[in-house]
Amino acid sequence: MAKEVSPGVLALRKVVEDVYADARKAHAEGRLVGWSSSKFPCELAAAFDLDVMYPENQAAGIAANRDGEIMCKAAEDLGFDNDICGYARISLAYAAGKRASRKVDFETGEYVINPASGKPLKDENGKVVIDPETGKPKKDPKTMQPYTVLDDIYEIEALPEGREKELRKAAIKPYRQMQMPQPDFVLCCNNICNCMTKWYENIARMRNIPLIMIDIPYNNTVDVHDTNVAYVRAQFDHAIHQLEELTGKKFDEKKFEEACANANRTASAWLRVCDYLQYKPAPYSGFDLFNHMADVVTARGRVAAAEAFELLEKDLAEAVKVGKTTTPFPEQYRVMFEGIPCWPKLPNLFKPLKEHGVNVTAVVYAPAFGFVYNNMDEMVRAYYKAPNSVCIEQGVSWREGICRDNKVDGVLVHYNRSCKPWSGYMAEMQRRFTEDLGVPCAGFDGDQADPRNFNEAQYETRVQGLVEAMEANKAAKEG
Amino acid sequence: MSIYTLGIDIGSTASKCVMLCDGREIVAKSLIAVGAGTSGPQRAIAQVLEESGKSREDMAFSLATGYGRNSMRELADQQMSELSCHARGASFLFPDVHTVVDIGGQDVKVLQIENGVMTNFVMNDKCAAGTGRFLDVMARVLEVKVEDLGTLGAQSTKNISISSTCTVFAESEVISQLSMDTDKRDIINGIHHSVASRVAGLAHRVGVRDKVVMTGGVAQNTGVVKALEEELGHIIYTSPLTQYNGALGAALFAYQKYQKEHRD
User: Fold this and answer.
1) Which domain holds residue B75?
2) pLDDT tens digit string along A83-103?
3) Which of A62, A201, A358, B256 is deepest in the core (most CB within 10 A)?
4) Which residue of B has its CA nearest to A425?
5) Exposure class string for B75-94: b at 16+ Cβ within 10 A, else e
6) Which residues in chain A have their CB less than 8 angstroms from residue B82's CB?
7) Domain at B28, CATH number
8) What does the pLDDT look like over A348-378, one tens digit per residue?
9) Is B125 near chain A, with CB under 8 Å?
């Protein structure tokens, strides 16, 4: 039976679909399309009616669609080191024109199916059908996929008009993240990470397009100093001037204020949705929050995003009232999942958690994107605070706050090969969590986009160890 | 009537079994020097049964642990992580233990123990440096037996630093020392300190409290134990049963599970 999807979730899915569709339309009509880092002030671009796409969200989607490895390798072939963030590698390969494509037989025009792909075929009783010749499960032909190959849109464009050009164009994978328009300009704010600066500089140079940069220095103190606010505020003003030159339009104060109001409304609704994880048992799995991140990142300045989160909030209120949850297992343990998930390995991440009844009821994204402000200076302060731009005291305080509110029994930390600043301070944070909250922590190695950096057996042992430590901890507390 | 339980530890390089009577007395033990995905697990079980004169049916509860624990779903009643099993085994051997350092074939783990149960842990990342495999590779390059490393390293008279934290690069460093005619015993001592320094970095993450116990095959290497004592500044205790510690913990948990099932 198909999983029931709530109206709020459906609305959120549509919002992201629309963001991509609007950008494709703008590109087709010859209007400017920009690429932006996830925590660049989207309100500024909205004041100019610009369509903006988000490479971080795109890279996560490409990785979840299992094309992270081929795109990362393509970037490495272009000379980018494999130590660089997986999102950056995917994005740089994409900016260079590289695409994950389906293998085509040019004689027949058909896609060449990979015999190793697909799910096992099941009979009418739901039993797996075994192939008598091989003794292995038969594949369900409906789920089998063509081989994935790497292609290049600039190579395709250079081909003479004809069958090969048409077939190769059509073979590029159809999902939205692989169909994102190329950028006409880039908007970079390095509050989210420092790798972002070089990543966007490279795109700008590669495509010979303008780069609008907002530099946010690492903040050593919990409060943002007035001089830092002035430094960033001046950059906001300069960015507005650059956008005026780029578009040939004047800054539209009304549209800006509208986008600010929408962003605030979205953020407030997002925070309220996140707060539903405080219920015990939680009405949904924290893994769902990872999916809703796409809306906060790509559409927080749109009224549709605010409305969709408000709708989801209603769904959750109803779920709590009737005692329903989307978590497909009884919740025995509650953990905070620290870091970005391993998108290419989401089912593998989920499997041992489900097996041991572990629900993710806290993620650090909630405060990271749930910011509300009342004026331009407050907006600067809000954008100043992102997971990798705040000091360890602020980072610990954010996390311990959610851990307490959301009543976690333990912490599962992703040591993310793609995000060294984030992973770097986790050893110290783990020590603080155990000391301050009295909960065990377990770390595992992985990567947000490159599947080569994840080992399932190691992950399973660490999850099982964490469960056993949480069990012992609970038993000790209960006496 | 006596209750027999079986602990099966399927590691990456060896398969170990321990049979317990009434959760207290070790009746038999076995060790086969091949691990997960080989004939090792079956042979280790057959050997421990033969040594004890018992059959599988005599086992009230069997519990599997280690890297290959999930391949034992048909042979064992339950699986648990090697983390908890090492904690339990060490607490049985040394009741006042607070820190366990276990160096196995491909894993290094440091466990924090409170009243005999694991409360926190940390493991190595995806790197073989500091593990038993690291020592295997070095022993091969040096043309010595891995079990002789401890004795040879103790004869060192000069400090040699093996600075690389990567097994492959450390191997090249050892080769370059050999080509400069450096005494093998000094190189071995340098290797032991390299392992100890790596493991100490991990241990400090969860905190080191007396009594510190080292388990796993590498605990038989007195050179590594001594180097780690220097790095940590704590006395390290080991047991002759060190390699069986995970299986012992599994057999103890098996007894506990059996009791719980029969009490409920």
Assistant:
1) 1-94+244-264
2) 999 999 999 999 999 999 999
3) A62
4) B205
5) ebbbbbbbbbbbbbbbbbbb
6) 461
7) 3.30.420.40
8) 999 999 999 999 999 987 767 788 898 888 9
9) yes
